[in-house]
Amino acid sequence: MAAPNFGSPITALGRLLVYFSLTAVLMPVQFLAVALRLPLRKSLPHWYHRRSCRILGIRIQMRGEISDRHPTLFAANHVSYLDIEVLGALARISFVAKAEVATWPFFSWLARLQETVFVERRAQRTADHRDQITRRLEAGDDLVLFAEGTSGDGNGILPFKSALFSVAEQRPGGEALTVQPVSISYTRLDGVPLGRYLRPFFAWYGDMELGPHLWHALGLGYVTVVVEFHEAVTIERFGSRKALCDHCHAVVSRGVAEALSGRRQPQALPSGAASEAASGAAPGAEVAG
C-alpha cells in the first residue's frame, strides 16, 4: 500500500520524541518493580499506557464493564500494535504474544517489562504454552489473548483459533476460568469515520513494515478506538473449548460490526470522569486523548 499523501511528519516526530522520552525514564523503574515483584509492576504499565495514548493521539471509547474477577482471560481481536496501548490503558493486564515478538528490537523489552507470555505457533508446543499461561492465571494475573493468532485489516475479524482456548479448560484456584470477549475497532480520524480506505493506516497486518507504518499512523490526527467488553463467561456454559471459541468469535465479530457501522455509539463522559472509566467502572467513557 502506498503511503498516504496527508499527515504531518512534524506531528509524527513530536509524538515519537515525547513517547520515547517517557518510555526511557520509566523502563528502569519498571525493570526494578518486576525484578523485586513489587505491586508497582502492575500499576505503572497501566499509568504509562494511558499517558502514551494521549501522546500518540489515541482516543478510547469504552463500552461494557471490565470483569472484576481475577484472574480473567480477555479474548480479543487484533488490529494493530496500538492495541497494546489501548488495552493497557483500560486495565492492569499482561499479554499473550507470539514468540517472534521476543526478538523485536525495543518492543521485546517493553513486552518483557509487562510480563508478556510468549508462545510459539507450533502445535506440538500447545501443552507447554497452556501450562505457562495457567501458571500466570493461578498467580492471579489477568491476561489478554489475541484469539485470531495474528492481526487483521480492521474491517472485520479473522477466525479464532480454538487451540488457544485450551487454557480455559483449566481451573485456577479450583474455579472455572473467567473468559471475557473484547472487541477492538478503529472507527474515526479527527471525528470523521475512517472507512475501508483509511483504516489500514492504523491496522497493521500482512507484510507491512513496522517502521514506515508507525511513522504514517503517528503523523495523522486523533484516532478513535472503540473497545467493548462483552459479557464474561466460563467454559462450563458451553461444554467445550470449541463452543467457547465460537461464542467469543460471534460476540466479538458482532461488536466490531456495530462499532464500525456507528450503531450504539458510546457517549463520552465529562472531563474528569476518565479515571473511573479506566478502572472499568464507567462504561461508555472516553478515557484517553
The sequence of SSEs as H and E is HHEEHEHEHEEEHHEHHE
Count every helix, treating DSSP H or I runs of 4 or more residues as helices.
9
Shape: globular
Helix content: 25-40%
As an assembly, this protein is single chain
Give the uncertain stretches in residue-range form.
266-283
Structural category is alpha/beta
**How many distinct beta strands?**
9
Overall mean pLDDT: 87
List the helices and strands and how they pair.
Elements: H1 9-35, H2 40-56, E1 58-64, E2 72-76, H3 82-90, E3 94-98, H4 107-113, E4 117-119, H5 126-138, E5 143-146, E6 178-189, E7 192-193, H6 195-198, H7 210-218, E8 223-229, H8 241-261, H9 274-278, E9 286-288
Parallel strand pairs: 1-8, 2-5, 2-6, 3-4, 3-5
Antiparallel strand pairs: 1-9, 6-7, 6-8
